[in-house]
Amino acid sequence: MPDVQLSRRALVLGAIALALALTLAARVHRHSGTSSAVSTPAPAARVAAAAPAPLVVDVVGAVRRPGLYRLAQGARVADAVARAGGATRKADLALVNLAAPLADGTQIVVPARAVVAGGAPSAAAPSGPVHLNTATLDQLDALPGVGPVTAQKILDYRQQHGAFASVDELDAIPGIGPARLETLRKLVAP
User: Fold this and answer.
1) How do residues 122-176 score in pLDDT, each as one tens digit?
2) Beta-strand pair 114-115/130-131
3) What is the 3-state secondary structure (H, E, C) of 67-115?
4) Are 62 and 143 part of one and the same domain?
5) pTM of the model as a whole
6) Domains held by the chain: number
7) In what order do the strands lie in the sheet with 107-110?
C-alpha cells in the first residue's frame, strides 16, 4: 500500500468537513423523526379522519319502518324519516322539524295526527311530549312559561351542545329555573 502523506492543513480541513457532515446528518435525522411523527398520521388515524363515524338514530312513530338507522354526518331529520320508509298517511309532519341536523343517539318521533271527538284529525292538538331534540321554535314557544326568547335559547343550546340527553339539561338555559323546569318536565322529552 502506498504511503499517503497528508499535510496538517488537509487533515484539519478533512476533520472540519467530517464534523459538518455529522452535524448536518444529525439535524436532518432529528427533524425527519419529529416531522414524520407530527405531520404523518398513522394509517388508522388517516382512515378515521377520512371517514367520520356514522350517526345512529332511532326513528319511531308514524313511519313505515321504525327502527335504528345509520346515517352520514351532517344528515337531517328528513333523511332519517326517508330511511325509515317515509311518513305514513297518519303522520303530522307539521310537528317535526325536518330540517334539523341529527346528532348521534337521537330519537326522532314522527307523531300521528290527533283525532278529535268527531273523528276528524286535528293538527292543533299536540300528541305526546314536545321532543327537545326535534322541536321547532313554535313548538317550544307554545310551552307554558317559554316565550319566543327562551325558545330561541333552547334551540341555540341544542345547536351548540348537540342533542339533549335529558330534560335536566334545560336548567343550563338562562330563564329556566327549578320551578319552570318542574313544569316542563311533564311536557317535554329529550
Assistant:
1) 444 455 688 888 888 888 888 887 888 888 888 888 888 888 888 888 888 888 8
2) unpaired
3) EEEEECCCCEHHHHHHHCCCECCCECHHHCCCCCECCCCCEEEECECEE
4) yes
5) 0.42
6) 2
7) 67-71, 55-61, 107-110
